[in-house]
Batch of 2 targets.
Target 1
Amino acid sequence: MFLRSALSLWPLARNGTRSYSSTGVTKLVAVTVDDQTGIATVNLQRPPVNSLNLELLTELSSSLTDLEKNKSRGIILKSYSDAVFSAGIDILEMYKCEEERVTLFWSALQEVWIKLYGHFAPTVACINGHAPAGGCLLALSCEYRVMVKEKTIGLNETKLGIVAPQWFIASLVNIIGQRQSEVALTTGKMFTTEEALRIGLVDEMAENTEDAFSKSLEFFKKFKNISPFARAQTKAFIRESTIQALVKNREKDLKMFINEIRKENVQKGLGQYLESLKKRKVS
Ligand SMILES: CC/C=C\CC/C=C/CC(=O)SCCNC(=O)CCNC(=O)[C@H](O)C(C)(C)COP(=O)(O)OP(=O)(O)OC[C@H]1O[C@@H](n2cnc3c(N)ncnc32)[C@H](O)[C@@H]1OP(=O)(O)O
């Protein structure tokens, strides 16, 4: 009942779905709520590769807050593009960056992770494109991952000469375990969909975006006969210590990030990486 009335505040987009915009302006994140199921599709739409900048993260954070307030029944996180789910952090947020902006940027990333990782309703990453680094982190924050075949996913930070923060690492360890995570992280491994499925980094493989989306929807059916309260509280208990480890150390984590990226060799490496990206193409 409450869900219906809460959702009725959301403007009608087209038959059976409601679109939601926290600012009312064209967005980097579009939220559509299915009127029948109450499930929200959160579409990342920052061309060309959904790299995570301050503006996208701020919108995502605000969308997650609204979904929490409106008691969404579940979230499917996907990309507008069939090529890239998210290319991770926008390297320009780290390269030759100003302190004020980078502080806001990193705080926004922390905020999004805390909200998504701890979201009370079921969450699915519909990984319809490549998902390196921060893109992988978003997927890891969800409860279930469906990935389109012949894409890649992983925390490749060491390949950029940077160190994945503890909460990135914990998000991976909680899914594939310490041994697999250590090998993956230290080598900056990008897994193909098939490899990711084999080690449990993703839960299902899909033929294409449509198939991935329909498999994502299926996930919510698992909870048909489960008390939403029992489900949400169990998730909270399981995830609490991982979330608190960051919540209690946000300031320290921010300082570490800024110190790390300011290092001369890191700046040089990021500059070279940006250049190499411009020269190369991934099919
Ligand atoms: C103590 C803690 C310290 C530090 C922790 C910091 C943590 C960082 C985590 C991160 O997320 S770092 C970012 C890592 N991301 C990547 O390594 C991904 C790089 N991108 C790619 O591998 C590919 O672009 C792609 C597989 C995602 C997509 O390939 P494709 O479809 O062939 O597109 P293009 O490569 O042609 O890219 C189009 C366009 O976009 C630019 N670009 C790509 N990724 C980024 C990015 N992450 N940031 C900024 N810009 C990016 C790329 O250069 C192209 O630009 P053009 O101007 O040439 O069009």
Note: The chain has one domain: 2-279.
Target 2
Amino acid sequence: MDNQIKIDETQYLNKTLKAMEKSLKTTAAEIKRTNKHIDTVSQSWGDVRLKTDTYSGIVETAASIRQQQQMLSERENSKTRAEHRFTTLTQQIDKPYFARIDFSESATDSGEAETIYIGLSSFSDDNNKFLVYDWRAPVASIYYDGGIGDVTYLTPDGSQRAHVTLKRQFQIEDGVIVTLFDTEEAIGDAMLMSALSGESSTKMKSIVTTIQKEQNKIIRNTAADLLFVQGAAGSGKTAAVLQRVAYLLYRYRGKLTSGQVVLFSPNQLFNDYIDNVLPELGEQNMVQMTFYQYASRRLPKMAVETLQARFEEDQTSSTIALAKGSLAMFDAVTAYAQHLNRKDLKLRSLMFRGEPLISKTRIAEIYYQYNDNYKLSQRLDATRDTLMRSLSARIGSEMRKDWVELAIENLSKQEYDTLVGAGKVRVGDDQENDAASRTRQAQLGDGPKAREFASEKAERQFLSRQIVTQALKPLARQIRRGSFLNINAQFVDLLRQLPNYLDLAQFDLTLSEWQQHVETVIDNLKNKQLSLTDTTLYLYLYDLITGKTGERDIRFLFIDEIQDYTPFQLAFLKFSFPRAKFTVLGDLNQAIFTKDNANNLSRDFAKLFDSDRVERVNLTQTYRSTQQITDFTKYILKGGQNIEAFNRSGQKPRVKLSPNEADMLHQLQQQLTEYSQQHDTTAIITKTLADAQLLSEQLQDTSVTLIQSENQRLAQGTIIVPSYLAKGLEFDAVIIWHADNTRYGQDSERRLLYTVASRAMHSLTLLAEKQVSCLLDHVPEKLYEVES
Ligand SMILES: Nc1ncnc2c1ncn2[C@@H]1O[C@H](COP(=O)(O)OP(=O)(O)OP(=O)(O)O)[C@@H](O)[C@H]1O
């Protein structure tokens, strides 16, 4: 690189750093100043005169408290803003920017080149001149999208053309330019290579400096209602989508908060793995949850099938699962719910003192008395209102019953006082005789002082009304909550009646197979157990009956590892987040829960959206693994040939054969010693949890962490983890335990083996007893080494 260029760039960097330091000082001073102001305001609380003797006094006091609070919150706001600026600046000052582009806007045709520097966030000097542009600014797209020459980029006002004359990349550390180079490509391979050669860690990092053109499309897409990203393992789907969240928060700043963005992730461990990326980009994390958490928190009394059970019980290969997870099933539930408008709503009587106070037959009469064009939710609301009125109407007759008489007799002094409200002084009871207090008194009605009963009869009357009203309160609550709906029975009825709404033959199911299945579900339900598939059905039915309209505040919904969802679950999410734009990421080759059922997922899901608003992006280039590992893993799949490896070289994967498990354990220990010298993180991936637990006992190595549950934290060093928890994660080295036919012998386990093998960044070893898995049959032998 020309020396003059380095001198000029150093000069620009120093100028930027100087301006940043100045701004940092000013901001620090501002924080100090606002802190002082806050202190002063807080201290002046003493000046607020608390006048509580009179009503007008209270009003006056409330007004000055409000004023004080307003002042405080304004100061707090400016403090928060200053603190945010301070944090951003501190982050920026080490690496103020990572790229520069020179370009001219063809539109103006002035021919004069503009120069902009691109960094994590924008920075302008005292004269409001931008020294650094945010990577999310429209113009920064030029950096990611193309090389030198004419380019087009999107702005909120439409496409804009530009002519790029220079693209320069920088590595700046601690405020010093370490390297800088000019490139003609979108993002130079050298920079990407350096980003990918590092060791993995327990936390994912942002890819802001090396976002690829295809990824940039995903990040900046605002038009699609459904953005479907299909990409091979390690093709940067997750990385890109986290950048997308940061982009959206910037693009819609002031209108969109991180609380309005939800990410559904495969498991908690993964949530933990990615939760540093947004803060690193200077943004707050979005809401992250798993589908299991979303569904199970709504049914706290049920034991919803866990991830482990779901994986190990392997119910999903059955035709029943295919039927229950289908869009046809979703339509069937919708149609079944429709018919509840006419009949068959399952109800519970409202019980009072062991007897039905309002019987379920009566409730059904009420529910079905309304006009045909009532919707389910309107019917329910109207029924609630009528039930509330009947409840009030029952007070009179109930007051004359013996139990009330008895309750009055048995009242203690304290209970009596509570009932008549004696001893309670309410605001407004003892007032000066001014206008405000008179109004107040009128609003409050008679105070306790007036509660002197004219006669014993009046007193009894009063007490019995109080007692009955109290006793009926739980029923009022039940009515409000709709507890008279018998959802369990309704769900069972849905399953029983399903053959009227779903063509079982379409799924190769006979009526008796279905009926048998329904009996199993009923047994499980009695034990308060529900599979995840049934939970979704159950919740959808419940929402239709109660007229829940979903979470309308959520604007963007992301679903990672979509291949493990059924079309039914996706349709349910679409129903539950009606105003959200969806971005879904998946790799059909990693469908470990839904297996072949995943094949039509993309088509099925897209059906739920307007076809003009659906966009698909396919990522075939992988970044995670070395060329050798990617070339090996792609042959595990049938049809994985179009996966392109990134040209980063490493060792060939190794297959180690052992005559027995004891020898395999020994091989494992040897391999661990080697890897622990070379790498930061090594994962021993077993197929099941039971395998992981047993291996951990056999190893008896305290430095190896066993990950048994998704609620644990990832640990640096060596871990043992069951396959289904390794989803979405990556490790420097991976050792697959029992990579033989005992664990990976079926064609249906092909995707699982691919998923676990593709977790490796730099090294991969497969340990097998006697013979390696038959699923490697199509992998050319030259792509790996065998040791026995
Ligand atoms: N443009 C990029 N620049 C630098 N690193 C990248 C880039 N894209 C992806 N990576 C890295 O490649 C690795 C794999 O990315 P990521 O986990 O996002 O892939 P994925 O498609 O979600 O994989 P999987 O489907 O296997 O979970 C990560 O370490 C990520 O940081």
Note: Residues 192, 195-196, 207, 210-212, 215, 231, 233-239, 587, 590, 623-624, 728, 730, 758 surround adenosine-5'-triphosphate (CB under 6 Å).
